[in-house]
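Protocol step 6 of 9: fold each sequence in the batch and record its C-alpha cells directly after the sequence line. For illustration, a two-sequence batch is reproduced in full.

Sequence one:
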Amino acid sequence: MAHEALDPDFHRLIDEHAPVRQAGSGFTFTEGPIWHPVDHYLLFSDMPGDVRRRLDRSGVREVMNPSHKGNGMTYDTGLNLLVCEHATSCVARFDPDGRREVLASHFEGRELNSPNDICVKSDGSIWFTDPWYGRMAGYGVERPRELGWQGVFRLPPDHRPGNEPQLVVDRYTFTMPNGLCFSPDESLLYINDTEQANIRVYDVEGDRLSNGRVFASGIKDSLLPGVPDGMKCDAEGNVWCTAPGGLWVYSPEGRLIGKVSIPELPANLHWGGADWRTLYVCATTSVYAIDVKVGPRNEPFMRARGSQPAGPADSTAPTADETSGPLNLDANRFALIIQDMQNDVVMEGGAFAESGSPGHCREQNAIANVARLAEKCRQMGVPVIHVHFVVPPGAQGLTLNAPLFEGVIDNTALVRGTWGAAAVPGLEPKDGDHIVEKMRMSAWEGTNLETILKAEGRDMIIETGAWTNMSIEHTARTGADKGYFMVIPEDGCSTMNADWHNASINYALQNVALVTRTDDVIAALS
C-alpha cells in the first residue's frame, strides 16, 4: 500500500512505500494509543468494548475491564495515566499502581458531555476536548446532555481533583471538537472538529488561547471513509490528522503535503518504539504500526524520569537543581559515547599535540573521568560506544571542505592501524563495547551509530570525549535534532584550551543538552 506524497517535504517524514503492519486485531473500535516511555509498551482503548488493552513484545492483553469506555489517553510527567472516560463524562487519573482519581467531571454545575482527547503542556496543565459522542449508544452510555454545547477545557497545574475546568474557547465555536495537540514550542494549539471537517489553530498565551483561525478545511472525501479525529504534531511542527483513507499530513504553514494510507478507518495515532520512530495508528478493529523518519513533538511525559510514584508533576527532563533533588538517570535508556579519545587527538606526540589539546585534556582529567564513567556504565548494563575518527592510508574518501579535515591530511593523522588512530591508554574498547568509525566531526554522519542505538533500545545519550567545541558539540546538536536526550559531563570532555571549552559548554551545549559533571552522572546511574 503506497502512501501519497503531495510535496517533496513528505519524503523526509516517511518512506512513500513504508509497510503498514497490523500489530493487533479483532477488537471492536480502537482509540487513544499512548506509549509508555520507560517500560516501552502501547496502551490503547477498545472503547465500545469497554476494555483497555496493552500491546508489547508478548502480544496484546487486557489491563482494565470494564474501563468506563475510556477514549483518549496520555501521561503526565509523573507517568500517571490520564484518561478521557465516556461512560462517566470525566477526566480521570490513574497512578502507576492503578489507583483512580476523578480530576474533572462538571462545568458550571453541569456534567461534562464526554471528554474525548487530551494533551499536557510542559507547565503541567491538562487540555481536553468535550464533544458528546460518549452519550451516544455504542460509543458510551446513551443519556441526555446537560451542557447543550461542546467546548475545549483546561486544568491548571495547581488543579485539585473535583474543581471545575477552565473553558478556553467560545462555547459555540465547535460542533464536535475532537483531536488536539500543541506545536513543538507550545506557542500554538491545534484543535480539529469532526463534523466541520476542519482544524483550527490558536495562539497560546499562558493559560489562554487567542487569534483562533482555520488552519485546514475540507478534510473529507465522498469516496473514502474517514474524518478528523485523533491528531498529533511531529518534532518539525507538521500536523498528522486522521482523515479519509488514513492520515493527512500538513506542514506548519497549513499545506497538505502527503497522505498515509491505512487499511481501516483510523481513529487516533501516537508515536512509540524505543527510538520514537514507530507510528501506531488505532483503526477500527486493529492497531497498525508504521516506521517513520520523524519523531513526535517532545511531550512532557517523554522526558519524565523513570517510574515515578504518583504525585504532582515533576521536572520534565532529567535534571539536578535545588528544587528537584539529585540527578536521576534511567540506565535502561542510556548509552555512553566516548568520542575521538585517540592518541593523535589528545596525547603528547600525537599529530595535533601542538594545538594544546593534550594539556587541556590533562587539565580536565578527562581520560580518568571517562574511564570511571565507562566502568560504571558497564556495571549498569549501559552500552559503551567508542567513536573513532579513522582514515585509510592516503586518506582516500576524506573531503577537504573544512580546515580540520585538511589538518588530518597535512599531519598524516588518524591513519588506520597506526599508533595515532588507536584509543588512548585507559580507554581501550573492552569486550561487549561497540566501535563506530567516522570521517566527519559528528558521530552520526556516515556511521552505524543510530543502528546500534536502535538495536540496544536507547533514546538517551551520555556523550564524552574530544573536542568539546567540535565533535562533541556537533554530535550533541544532531542528537537533539533526532530526538535523543543528550547529557554532557563537561569534565569528561576537552578541546584545545579552556576558553574554547567553556564557550561551547556555557552557550551552545546549554541549548541542546543537559550539562553536568562525571561524578553526578555516576551517582545518578546508581
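Sequence two, same batch, same settings:
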Amino acid sequence: MNHWSTHQLTEFFAAVCESRDERAAITLAVERAAEVLEAEVGAVLRGDRVEVARGVDRDLLDEALPAAPEALLSLPGLDDLNIWSARFGAEPRGSLMVARAGDPLDPEERQLLQAMAQTLGLALSNIALLTAERRLREERERESAERLALVQSLREARHDSLTGLPTRVLFLEILAEKLCRPAPTSVLFIDLDRFKAVNDSLGHRAGDDLLGHVAARLRDCLRPADTGARIGGDEFAVLLDDTATDTAGPVAWRIIEALRRPFRIAGRDVFIGASIGIATGTAGFDADDLLGNADVAMYRAKKDGPGKVVVFEPAMHAEALARLTLTADLQHALTAGRFRLLYQPLIRLDSGRATGVEALIRWSRPGTGNVPPAGFLPLAEENGMIADIGRWVLRTAGEQAARWRATIPELTLNVNVSGRELVDPHFAATVERTLADCGLPAGAVTLELTESVLMSDPRTAVACLTDLRDLGVGLAIDDFGTGYSSLSYLQRLPVDELKIDRAFISRAEPTTADLAVIRTVVELARTLKLRTVVEGVETAEQHVAMRRLGCDYGQGYHLCRPIEPESVPAAFTGPLIA
C-alpha cells in the first residue's frame, strides 16, 4: 500500500474542507479512506448509527455492526472483513471506519486512519464555524434588506414617487405640528379639472407626466416655508405657513393661473385647470378636520364651475352630508329601478306635427319627491354613476321606441349623452350592442351632446363622434351657443343637428337682438347642412318668431309638455299645434 505523508494529509484536509456542508465532507472522507487503505467498506458512525457508507448499503451495515465480533464483520456476499475505526470530534463523537478482506490493518495503517479521523474532525469543526458565520452573515443581510425595505416603504408612504411631493401622511404630520402654534395656518385643497380626459385620451403615461409638471408649477407658486403635497389621484394640497384666509386667497388664484397655462405633454399642448378650496385653522385645530374642511370647500368650487376658489364655511358640512346621502339614494334608485322616463316630442314648426321624441329622465326620491335632473345628474357625472344611468336610459328608451315604431315607423328617438360616456373608448360598441338588443335601427336614434362637453376635448370628441357616425346614429349638439364653441371644430364635428339653447328666447317676446343671434345660428346651420331645433318655446309669439326665422324643429311647453310613455302614440295622430 501507499504510505501517506504529512503533505498528503494536508491535501486530504483541504479536499474535505472544500465541501460546503458536513454531509459532503463526510462522504468525501469515507471515499478517500477506503481508497487509500484498499478497503471494501468505509463508513462514518455518529451516535452508534451509520451516517455514510461506501461499498455496502447503509441500512445493511447498520444491522450488521452490533452483531459483529471484535474487529470482524460478516456481510452477505463478502468474505469476513477486518474492521478498524478511529474516533474524531467532540460530543456527539463520531468514528471513521474501514473494513477490508485479507490482512488486518497494520500499525502504520491504523495510525494513518487515526490521522485521517482527526483531520476529518478538524474539517468538520471548520465547516461548522464557516456555516455559522455564513448563516449569521445571511441573517444580517436579510435584516439589512428588511430595514432597507422598511425605510423605502416609509419613504413611499411619506413621499409620492411620481411627483416627489409629500403624501397625505406626511402632509398631515407637518400640518399637525403647525397647528400647535398660535399663528394661523391655511390649507388649499386642489383638484385638477379635465385631468381624466387627458388620461383617457393620451394614456396613463401622459397622465403621470402631466402630474409631474403640475407638481413643478405648484412648487413655483409657494414660499420655502410652505408645503405642497399630492393627496391622491389628481388631488393636491398646500399648507401655507403663518397665513390667514385673506392672504391664502391670492395664492390660490396664482395657482389657478399657473395651471391654466398649456402643458406640453406627449408632443402636444394640453389644457387643464383646477378648483381650489381654502380652510384656515389655528392652535388646537385638528389636522384631519382642517384638510377635510378644505376638501368640502373644493367640492363647492367644482360645483360652481371650473377654475373657482371657495373659502370654507361651517354650513358647507351640512351640504357635504346631504351630498353623501344623495349619492347613496341615487345608487339605490339605480339598483331598485326608481328612475322613469318622460318623452318630449320634437315638433316640425312648419306643420306642427311631432316627428320624434326626446327621452327625459325623472326621479321621485322617497321622502323628498321629484328631484329635477339638474339636482342629481351633475352629481352622477362627478361620481361616475352617469355611465350606468346613461346605459339604462338608452336601453329603456330604445326598447320603448322599438315598440312604438311598429305602428309609427317614422318616429325617431333623441337620447342625451354625458361627457363621461363620450370619453369611454367602448361607448360606440355599447351603443351598437344596445340598439341591436332593442331591435332599433341606428338611423332612428340621435344622440345629444352638450357644446361644452364637445369643446373641452375636441380631438377626443371628433374621434368618438366619428365612431358613432359610422354606426349610423344621428348626432346633435345640445344647448348650442352657451359654451365656448369654435367654428373650425364645428365644421369638423360629424353632427347632424344644432339645438339652440332656450336662453336665446327666454323673453316671452324675443327682442331684435335675440332674433339676430338665432338668425345667425340658423344661417350657419344651413351652410353646414345641419337641421336646427330651438328649445324653450313657451309662447305663441316665440313659436311664430322661430318659424319665420326658418328653424326646422321646436320643443317647449307651448308646443307640447313632456308626456308619459302611454301618451306618445296619440301625439303622432295629427298636428299638435297650428
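Proceed to step 7 once all outputs are recorded. Observation for sequence two: The mean pLDDT is 87.
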